[in-house]
Write a structure and sequence with these properties.
The protein is an all-beta fold and 127 residues long. Helix content is 0%, strand content 50%. The strands form two sheets. Strands 2, 4, 5, 6, 9, 10 and 11 form a seven-stranded mixed beta sheet that branches. A four-stranded antiparallel beta sheet has the order 1-3-8-7, with no helix packed on it.
């Protein structure tokens, strides 16, 4: 079992920044992939960003490319999402996800490839 816990959400004005953190604990295999998804009210959960453990390969949704940066600290089993130039459309519950394998990175946009999920953290961007 793997436990996934997010932190760092909050309220921020448009144009501001936030940094989310996600810590994984338990049977965290040395080879894994961690990602971020988000779900806005009335919308389906969507992919945001993902990163592998072996070589820090990253992949982003077009909507956040150039504004968000995903990174990780393997020693701490922690992944971060630095979010800059936030706009109201970024308002959502952000979920961290853990996959105990590394598929080709472009496949990791699919939520079903992740076995473990956090409870989510709310990010609200005011206009």
């Amino acid at each position: 079992q793997v436990q996934v816990v997010e932190s760092g959400g909050g309220l921020v004005p448009a144009g501001g920044s936030l940094r989310l953190s996600c810590a994984a604990s338990g049977r965290t295999f040395s080879t894994n992939t961690m990602g971020w998804f988000r779900q806005a009210p009335g919308k389906e959960r969507e992919f945001v960003a993902t990163i592998t453990s072996s070589d820090d390969t990253t992949y982003y949704a077009d909507s956040v490319k150039g504004r968000f940066t995903i990174s990780r600290d393997n020693a701490k089993n922690t992944v971060y999402l630095q979010m800059n130039s936030l706009n109201p459309e970024d308002t959502a519950v952000y979920y961290c996800a853990f996959a105990s394998v590394e598929w080709p990175i472009r496949f990791m946009v699919n939520s079903w490839r992740y076995e473990y999920w956090g409870q989510g953290t709310q990010v609200t961007v005011s206009s």
